[in-house]
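ugh ok fine here u go
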Amino acid sequence: MIEMFLDYLRLERNYSLLTVKSYREDLSDFERFFESLDSQVSWTSVDADVIRNWMEYMMDRGNSASSVNRRLSALRSFYRFALRKKIVQRDPVHGLQGPKKKKPLPQFLKETEMEQLLDSKMWTDSYEDVLSRTLIIMFYETGIRLSELTGLDDKDVDSVTCEIKVTGKRNKQRIIPYGENLAKTLAIYRQKRDAMVKDGSAAFFQTKVGERMSGAQVRSLVKKNLSKVSTLKKRTPHVLRHTFATAMLNHNAGLESVKKLLGHESLSTTEIYTHTTFEQLKKVYKNAHPRA
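structure:
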């Protein structure tokens, strides 16, 4: 049965020899597995429980979710073929789901790194430095997305109420309040911008010539300045968004409050940060108590 399927992949689907070899290995591995369970089990009598046991067996042996899902995909293709050819009466893989891939924990800067970065001694009074520092503080103290930040108009930042009106995904709007530190930073930036730029655009964040800052320009400035204090592989605006969320939770903010500020639709999206803060606390405790 395996050879018939492989001939189909090779001759009719024009799969490469390397891909066919991979399918052979995956299917042969499954065949050895079900034969080890019971010599009476065959390709035609395999059921969903046998396949689930196979997946558990692979996970127990240290295979990643990606590897297990790849092999399950090979088995799924095999049984679809066998069903079409009427070699089997049913498809035991139908409806089965593979293991979920673990989402990587968000990367974020330590509070000490942020304190170092935002130290006034790190910056000059040039327009680029004032702009860059304001961008970083905006990300860090509001958790705003890059697209939301570049989309801000001057009218969206209310210096009287200390609120920012943000247009997020699917044009959903939300209000983000901000504190005294960001208020001072925004006031300094606005003064610098208005002195530098004459007849600029309606955008809040503008280049020296009055054009709206693009996402690429903001990313470039953020990466350049985060590189001064961090060795993270990712040094992006999104890392600052993660840093905002992590800092909020580490200072006992409620998950629902953080969800609203970030503009997440589902609480499950926000919950990943609880794992991050827990991992961070474990490292802090381990470093503070090396013999623990």
